[in-house]
Structures are given as structure tokens and as C-alpha cells.
Amino acid sequence: MTCTDFFTLWLEIQAPSLKRSTYEAYTIYFQKHLEPYFRPYELNELKPIDVQRYVTDKLKGGRKDGKDGGLSLVSVKKHLSVLRQALDLAVIYGYIPQNPCDPVRLPKLKSGLTDRTVLLTAQEAQEVINAFEGHPLRVAVVLALYYGLRRSEVLGLKWSAVDFNRNVIRIEHTIVKNLTIEASDTTKTESSARAFELIPEVRALLLTEIERRPLTTPYINSWDDGRVFRPDYVTRGFQRNLKAHSLPQMRFHDLRHSTASILFDMGWELEDVKSWLGHSDIETTSNIYLHYSRERNVLLAKRLEGTFVL
Q1: 41 falls within a domain
Q2: Which range marks the domain in which residue 203 is found?
Q3: Distances from the Cα of 88 to the Cαs of 35, 77, 83, 137, in angstroms?
């Protein structure tokens, strides 16, 4: 059996037990990356060195969008995880004696942040908010910055999740896109489902939004005719407006990163930032965000002023 034949079989077996978004993500990994690379291989001839070479190849030059450079370590880690799952089943079914992914090692992930990650200061975040005055994505940008929301959480936010009487906003729905757009009444993880106090500025913004247009859809971030913003529109529309205002280019997800950075600069404890962002464990928060920005260095240095007499 070829690797291609087995990958196809594995996806068919897994499909009933996977969320549609997960199944589509796996399909993309296989169709764009894994299957083309391993197409020449017979399943029983696949060796650890072949998988290790795949990892090296993708890190050096694995992009499929026409741009130079390799995939991020996070992306390659996802590929390897899916490949390992598939080949575990090949072992169970007796096609191969052991999983060739087991000895494969990835370079150590120093941080969850990449070289292209943009971390805004509070002042820079304010400039971004100002740039979206009157823009359809203004509410989405404000929500992402105040609450550190993922794009899927921003898009999935419903009016029913906002309780103006109790002054609470709940994160409990998502909208994602891999091959198709999927709305879900679940969050990425159990800890991602969380509730926030309605910050006065956000409360005022949402009330203004209700007055501005009729509520033709249950979703907050939508067009006036009721159509929900597409995930790809959020990505492209966000970056186009940044360019139009001569602001640094960044991903929409960098707003979430920036929230964490700003909270650390304000002196928040690690556990509090973890809860605010909805991480499942504190190690995730620590590994990704515990850095010393210029603003935090200044803050810490000032605390030492006058400590000694020279």
C-alpha cells in the first residue's frame, strides 16, 4: 500500500469522529503538504529519516502561497502530529511494525511568537483603534484588543451573549474557515469559554451599534444586511485598512498577542492573563507571552531607582 492510499483511508476512517473544521484542516495538511511529499513512498518502506527530511524541508521552504521561506515551527508541528496519528493507526492495523514518526525531533520552540509577530504597546493599539473609526471592522478590532479574542471568537460573538443588565459578555460561539465556513456553539477549548465584565467603553460601543442599525442577524460582527463577516474578509480588510493609514502590517491575531503584552506591561500576574486569554494551562501563557518588552523594562528599572546610594 502506498502512503497516498493509506492517507486517504485514514481520513475516511476519521471523518465521522471529527468536527468538520478539524476534518477540513487535516484534509488541507494532506492535500497540500503531506501527500505530495510522501507520494513516491510505499507505506512499509517509510523510515524515520524520511519523516525527518520532511520536517527539515518544510521548515526551510515549505510555503505554498508563492512566498519565499519555510513554514513556522508551529505549523510543521501540526503536520507531524497529524502524520503521527495516521501512522499510529497503520501500526494498529499491521501495515507497519512501528511508527516512523516516533524518533523524529523538532527544533525547540523558544516562544509561541514568531519573527513576524507584532506586539503593540497601548499607545500603538490606540492608533490602530483610531484608524478604524467608521470602518465596518471597528467593533471587531476593539473586542479583539480589549478581551484578547481570537478571530473565530470575535466572529462567533452573538448579541445573545451580551447581557447589558448584568453587564457581562460571554465567549461561547465561534466561526472558523478551512475549506468551508463553519459556525459552532463551542469554543476552541473548554477554557476558551469564558465571561467578561462589560468594560464601559465596550458597552457604550455596542449600544451605539444597536442604535446605528437594525439587528438582522444574531451575530454582532456583520454587514447591515445581516451577512456575517467572512473570516477571510476580516484578515484582508484589517490589513488593507492598516496599509491605508500607513500603520505597520500585522495579522488580526496579533491583536490578541498585543492584549497579553499590554496586560503584562500594566503589571498583571501570569495567572490573570491566562484566564483573560482563555488558555487551558499556565505553561501556554508563559511560553508564548512571558517576554520583557521595552515598556516593562522601563517599569522594572524605575522600581530600582533609589534602592542604593552611590
Answers
A1: yes
A2: 122-297
A3: 17, 16, 9, 44
